[in-house]
Design goal:
By secondary structure, this protein is an all-alpha fold. The chain has one domain. The longest helix is centred in the N-terminal third of the chain and has 19 residues. The chain is elongated.
Length: 144
């Protein structure tokens, strides 16, 4: 499954030091990219639960707000599994991310992409339909 954010996106947003603190469980002094990518994949899966209600997945392009949300969810998730203190800022970002996902799912805010319902309707509008209006199968005279 593709994630909405990469390890590089996460490190850029959170910083190398905190990325190290959140993922270096063995004390090797390096960022555990496998653990980081797992947290991002878990967060992306959580996001899909909200987005699938409105958008056709997978998305052709990833808007930046989804990258940010994915990083904020993964940061909260990693803090809960590490010695890093979950600060008020981390909790607030997590809650705001969930609220934004709820608003995306309900249609209160938009990603600026075509919703899944519109994709289904546009293909139906362009579909070719055949019918024969002159040949009745059944008539009122019951002679058929």
């Amino acid at each position: 499954m593709a994630s909405y954010a990469s390890a590089a996106d996460f490190i850029l947003r959170v910083g190398e030091l905190q990325s190290l603190q959140l993922t270096d469980r063995e004390g090797k002094g390096e960022i555990n990219t496998l653990l980081l990518e797992l947290a991002l994949a878990d967060s992306s899966s959580q996001m899909d639960g909200y987005l699938t209600a409105r958008y056709g997945l997978p998305l052709a392009e990833i808007p930046q707000n989804l990258v940010r949300i994915c990083c904020d969810l993964a940061r909260f998730r990693l803090c809960s599994m590490s010695d890093v203190e979950i600060t008020e800022e981390i909790i607030a970002r997590y809650k705001l991310s969930l609220k934004e996902l709820e608003q995306l799912a309900s249609g209160k805010i938009s990603l600026g992409l075509v919703p899944a319902d519109d994709l289904d309707n546009s293909t139906a509008e362009n579909a070719v339909q055949f019918f024969n209006g002159n040949n009745r199968v059944f008539g009122r005279d019951y002679e058929n």
